[in-house]
Write a structure and sequence with these properties.
single chain, about 250 residues, alpha/beta, Rossmann fold, SIR2/SIRT2 'Small Domain', 2 domains, 6-stranded parallel sheet, 10 helices, 9 strands, about 35% helix, binds 2'-O-acetyl adenosine-5-diphosphoribose
Length: about 250
C-alpha cells in the first residue's frame, strides 16, 4: 500500500484552480528511467569523463569522433529507456488543467513518449543532427549513425548532435515561448533540475515575480530553492503521481 502523503492544501488548491500551469523539467525527471543526470557521477565506460566537458562546441572542434561516441552511447541509452511515473503524471496533468506549458531541458524525448503534447525542447533533441558549419548552423540533417562523424548532405561539413551546448544560445522560438509561459502562469513547477544553467534556471524567478505559486520537486535543495514558494522533497516519479492524486480529493 503506497504511503499516504498530505501536501499543503494551499498548493493543491492553487494547482486545482490554475488557469495556466508552466512546468520546467531537468535531467532528474528521467533519472528513474535510468538516464544519468549531468551532475551526478557517470557510470561504466564514460565514468571518467565529465559531460560538461563533452557538451561544448570546443570539444567537438577538438575531437568530433570522441564527442559522437559519447552521444551515440547516450542515444542508445535513451532508446532503451522507458518513461517513468513522473513523465506520465505530467502528461496526465495536461488533461486536468485548462492550459499546461511543458518546458524541458532534457533532450531524451521521454515526455513526448509519455504522451505530453507541444513540449518545448529548450536544449534540442538528441536524435536530431545539425550542420556544424556556421553558415548552416541551424540546418537539421538526416541522422546517419553508421559513420564516425556524419556529414551535412547539403554542404559536406561535419554534422553534430542537434542539442544546445554550453555557451550556445537557446533556439529563439523555444526561449520566447518559455519566457512568455513563465510570466503568464499561475503555478510553476520546477522538476528535477539543479537550476544552475541559465536561461532555463531563470524561469522560476520570472514566474514568482509575476505572482505565480512556484513549487520545486527535487530530492535535494538547489541554488534556486529560496526563490520558490514551496519545495516537495522526493523523487519526481513518486511525488508527481501523489500530487495528482491529491487533486482528486
Ligand atoms: P543536473 O544533472 O544539473 O541536475 C539534476 C537534478 O535532478 C539535481 O538537482 C538532482 O537533485 C535532481 N534529481 C535527481 N534524481 C531525481 C529524481 N528522481 N526526481 C527528481 N529530481 C531528481 O541536470 P539539469 O538541471 O537538467 O544542458 O541540468 C541542466 C542542464 O545542464 C542540462 O540540460 C544540460 C546540462 O549541462 C546542456 O547540455 C546545455
Amino acid at each position: 500500500m503506497p504511503e499516504k502523503v498530505r501536501f499543503d492544501p494551499t498548493l493543491v488548491g492553487a494547482l486545482r484552480d490554475a488557469r495556466h500551469v508552466c512546468v520546467l523539467t531537468g535531467a532528474g525527471v528521467s533519472a528513474e528511467s535510468g538516464v544519468p543526470t549531468f551532475r551526478e557521477a557517470q557510470q561504466g565506460l564514460w565514468a571518467k569523463y565529465d559531460p560538461l566537458q563533452l557538451a561544448t562546441p570546443e570539444a567537438f572542434e577538438r575531437d568530433p569522433e570522441f564527442v559522437w561516441r559519447w552521444y551515440r552511447w547516450r542515444r542508445e541509452l535513451v532508446s532503451q529507456a522507458e518513461p517513468n511515473d513522473g513523465h506520465r503524471a505530467l502528461a496526465e496533468l495536461q488533461d486536468l488543467v485548462p492550459r499546461l506549458t511543458l518546458v524541458t531541458q532534457n533532450v531524451d524525448g521521454l515526455h513526448q513518449r509519455a504522451g505530453s503534447r507541444d513540449v518545448i525542447e529548450f536544449h534540442g533533441n538528441i536524435f536530431s543532427n545539425r550542420c556544424f558549419a556556421r553558415c548552416n548552423y541551424d540546418r537539421l540533417v538526416e541522422c546517419d549513425d553508421d559513420t564516425a562523424v556524419p556529414t551535412c548532405p547539403a554542404c559536406g561539413a561535419p554534422a553534430r548532435p542537434g542539442v544546445v551546448w554550453f555557451g550556445e544560445t537557446i533556439p529563439e522560438a523555444a526561449l520566447n515561448a518559455s519566457f512568455a509561459a513563465a510570466a503568464d502562469c499561475d503555478v510553476f513547477l520546477s522538476v528535477g533540475t539543479s537550476s544552475l544553467v541559465y536561461p532555463a534556471a531563470g524561469l522560476g524567478a520570472i514566474a514568482q515575480e509575476a505572482g505565480a505559486i512556484t513549487i520545486e520537486v527535487n530530492p535535494n535543495s538547489t541554488e534556486q530553492s529560496e526563490v520558490f514558494t514551496a519545495a516537495l522533497r522526493g523523487n519526481s516519479g513518486v511525488i508527481l503521481p501523489k500530487l495528482l492524486e491529491s487533486l482528486a480529493h
